[in-house]
C-alpha cells in the first residue's frame, strides 16, 4: 500500500485533497483539551476532547481553526455527578461507512450508535460495548484480522490493557489481556496502562498507550508492536517498547493520551496529544491539546520526536 494507515476511522478515507496548506500554533485547545482524538474527512478536521459532562465535536477546515471551530453537542449525561467527571476520552471511528463515537462513562465502555456517513451527522442511542470495568476504548483495524476493541481494563489489581475482536460496531467477543504495567516507567505513583491508540505503517501495527499516573509529569507514551505474525489477541504476539517514546519536555508535562490522524492527502501521520504546563502533572481540565508530525526511523518504527513548546508554529 502506498500510504500508511492509522485507525479504522482514518484508513477508510479514499479521496483526499491537498496536504495541510496552512500553519498553526499549539495548543489547538487551551481548556478541556485532554484525551484528544481527531479525524480528517471530506474537507474538515473533526476534534473531540474530554468535556466531562457531554460529548462535543468541533470541526474546522484548518487545524488552527479548531481553536474557535464550530461546535456540536451530540450527547449530554442525564444525571451527572456533582464533581462532573462522568464522561471522558471520546473517539470518532468509521466502521463500514458509518461513524460511531466510543467513550468512557462511569468507568465503563460505551458507544454512541452511528447512522450517518459524516462525523457531523446524527447519532443514536448509547450502548455498552461490554460489561466489565473498562475505559479509554479505541478501535484498531488489524490487517487480515479485522476490527479490534482495545481498552484499559483491570487485571490482577493492575490497570492494564485488554483487547477483543469486534462482533459488531457495538459489541465484542471474548476479552484478552494485552499488556500490564510491570516496568518501572509504567508505575510512577500508580501502575497504569491506558489511552491506547492504533498506528499502522508498512506491514506493522503499533498500539501507542499512556503509562504511569496522569497526575505526574511521568505520564508518557510507549508502544506495543505487532509485526504481522501471531494472533493479535495474544499478548505474546506484541512487543512492548523498552522505554517510553514520548515524554515531558519544553515546559509541557504529562504529554500522553494521544491519537493519530492523517494529513488531508494521506501522506503524513500526525500525533495529537494532551499536555499540561503544571510541572507536577494533571488529570484535570487544564490539559491542552497539541499536535505534531510523526516521523519514521530507518527500521520503519515511529519517531514521535520531542513535545513542542507552547506557542510553537508548525
UniProtKB/TrEMBL annotation:
<dbReference type="GO" id="GO:0004553">
    <property type="term" value="F:hydrolase activity, hydrolyzing O-glycosyl compounds"/>
</dbReference>
<comment type="similarity">
    <text>Belongs to the glycosyl hydrolase 43 family.</text>
</comment>
<keyword id="KW-0732">Signal</keyword>
<feature type="signal peptide">
    <location>
        <begin position="1"/>
        <end position="21"/>
    </location>
</feature>
<keyword id="KW-0326">Glycosidase</keyword>
<dbReference type="InterPro" id="IPR006710">
    <property type="entry name" value="Glyco_hydro_43"/>
</dbReference>
<dbReference type="GO" id="GO:0005975">
    <property type="term" value="P:carbohydrate metabolic process"/>
</dbReference>
<protein>
    <submittedName>
        <fullName>Glycosyl hydrolase</fullName>
    </submittedName>
</protein>
<dbReference type="InterPro" id="IPR023296">
    <property type="entry name" value="Glyco_hydro_beta-prop_sf"/>
</dbReference>
<keyword id="KW-0378">Hydrolase</keyword>
<dbReference type="Pfam" id="PF04616">
    <property type="entry name" value="Glyco_hydro_43"/>
</dbReference>
Amino acid at each position: 500500500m502506498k500510504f500508511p494507515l492509522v485507525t479504522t476511522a482514518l484508513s477508510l478515507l479514499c479521496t483526499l485533497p491537498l496536504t495541510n496548506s496552512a500553519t498553526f500554533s499549539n495548543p489547538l485547545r487551551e481548556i478541556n483539551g485532554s484525551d484528544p482524538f481527531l479525524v480528517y474527512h471530506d474537507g474538515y478536521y473533526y476534534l473531540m476532547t474530554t468535556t466531562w459532562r457531554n460529548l462535543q465535536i468541533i470541526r474546522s477546515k484548518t487545524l488552527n481553526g479548531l481553536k474557535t471551530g464550530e461546535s456540536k453537542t451530540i450527547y449530554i449525561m442525564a444525571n451527572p455527578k456533582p464533581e462532573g467527571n462522568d464522561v471522558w476520552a471520546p473517539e470518532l471511528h468509521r466502521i463500514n461507512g458509518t461513524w460511531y463515537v466510543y467513550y468512557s462513562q462511569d468507568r465503563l465502555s460505551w458507544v454512541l450508535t452511528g447512522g450517518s456517513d459524516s462525523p457531523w451527522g446524527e447519532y443514536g442511542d448509547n450502548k455498552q460495548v461490554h460489561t466489565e470495568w473498562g475505559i479509554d476504548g479505541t478501535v484498531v483495524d488489524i490487517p487480515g484480522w479485522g476490527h479490534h476493541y482495545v481498552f484499559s481494563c483491570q487485571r490482577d489489581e493492575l490497570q492494564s490493557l485488554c483487547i477483543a475482536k469486534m462482533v459488531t460496531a457495538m459489541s465484542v467477543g471474548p476479552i484478552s489481556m494485552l499488556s500490564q504495567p510491570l516496568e518501572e516507567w509504567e508505575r510512577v505513583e500508580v501502575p497504569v496502562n491506558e489511552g491506547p491508540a492504533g498506528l499502522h505503517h508498512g506491514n506493522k501495527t503499533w498500539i501507542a498507550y499512556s503509562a504511569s499516573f496522569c497526575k505526574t509529569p511521568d505520564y508518557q507514551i510507549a508502544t506495543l508492536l505487532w509485526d504481522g505474525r501471531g494472533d493479535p489477541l495474544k499478548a505474546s504476539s506484541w512487543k512492548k517498547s523498552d522505554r517510553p517514546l514520548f515524554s515531558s519536555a519544553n515546559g509541557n508535562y504529562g504529554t500522553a493520551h494521544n491519537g493519530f490522524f492523517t494529513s488531508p492527502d494521506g501522506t503524513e501521520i500526525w500525533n495529537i496529544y494532551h499536555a499540561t504546563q503544571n510541572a507536577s502533572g494533571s488529570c484535570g481540565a487544564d490539559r491542552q491539546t497539541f499536535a505534531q508530525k510523526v516521523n519514521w526511523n530507518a527500521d520503519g518504527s515511529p519517531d514521535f520526536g520531542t513535545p513542542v513548546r507552547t506557542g510553537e508554529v508548525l
